[in-house]
Write a structure and sequence with these properties.
Order of helices and strands: EEEHEHEEHHEHEHHEHEHEHEH
CATH class: Alpha Beta
Distance between the termini: 16 Å
CATH superfamily: NADP-dependent oxidoreductase domain
Number of helices: 11
Largest sheet: 8 strands, parallel, barrel
Number of strands: 12
């Protein structure tokens, strides 16, 4: 798999990145680790996680997988959306909730056991969240720390937050920080606070128009996600559309199938040369 340079940084990454938002839905640990290994074996080096994913489980599993491989991986994590402390401490509760919601969807076509998101984008929260992430990931640094789905209204005292993030960067615990969320929210934030725009990971689920917003603002699309979410078109067509929307950055995807990972990696060179 070819490597892409992330514009304006010293980072390089595989063209495809693996997102861990659904890793907790793989029920057995050995299967979760096998899924991460399947991604790495195809040449994927970019692994994207967050404390909220599986309420800590995704970071813990990536930490186990990264043992002995850390120098081969680009690890991106986030802060801002906090994991539920009960589900973090008692994963059985999380799986009971997933099972209950699956049953409810079959009857009512909706989930009734929702967990409200708790958000905190303060500087102190960023520091505490990163320290927890570093312990879970079994590493002394992350390559990228993203604000997780921020909006300008939610940032509050952004100058203090910037001071905290720059301090983490100076300490070597974070190589780069940036924004992960909707293109419109990311652009709004960077217009007010340009220093947040070093790395942009944006939602492409609504189509090419959102990614175009970044380019019109002279911002790079370092990575994009949502290309495959909820879409029923053939994988090859969705991948071709993703390549067209994001020709120079990392295309993120998630799956519970090692076979789909291999199929994506095998299809990518063909799609990029057509």
């Amino acid at each position: 798999m070819r490597t892409v340079a992330l514009a304006g940084t010293r980072l390089s990454s595989s063209r495809l990145g693996f997102g861990l938002s659904g890793l907790h839905r793989v029920l057995r640990r050995r299967d979760r680790l096998a899924l991460l290994a399947a991604a790495h074996d195809t040449g994927i080096t970019y692994f994207d996680t967050a404390p909220y994913y599986g309420h800590g489980l995704a970071e813990n599993e990536l930490g186990r997988f990264a043992d002995g491989r850390r120098s081969q991986l680009l690890i991106a994590t986030k802060f801002g959306i906090q994991p539920n402390p009960w589900l973090s401490q008692f994963p059985a509760l999380m799986y009971a909730r997933l099972a209950a919601n699956a049953s409810l969807r079959r009857v009512t076509r909706r989930e009734a056991l929702a967990i409200s998101m708790q958000r905190d984008y303060t500087g102190s929260s960023a520091v505490k969240s990163l320290e927890r992430s570093l312990r879970a990931l079994c590493t002394d640094h992350v390559d990228i720390l993203y604000l997780h789905e921020p909006t300008l209204a939610l940032l509050g005292n952004a100058e203090r937050l910037l001071d905290s993030l720059e301090g983490l960067q100076a300490s070597g615990k974070v190589r780069y920080f940036g924004l992960s969320g909707s293109a419109r929210d990311c652009v709004d934030i960077v217009r007010r606070y340009p220093n947040f725009g070093a790395l942009m990971q944006v939602d492409a689920a609504q189509g090419a128009g959102d990614l175009k917003l970044l380019r019109e603002s002279a911002l790079a699309v370092h990575s994009s996600f949502g290309h495959f979410r909820g879409k029923r078109a053939p994988m090859i067509d969705l991948l071709a559309a993703a390549v067209g929307m994001n020709p120079n950055g990392v295309i993120l995807f998630s799956t519970r199938s090692p076979q789909r990972i291999r199929a994506m990696a095998e299809a990518l060179p063909t799609v990029e040369t057509t």
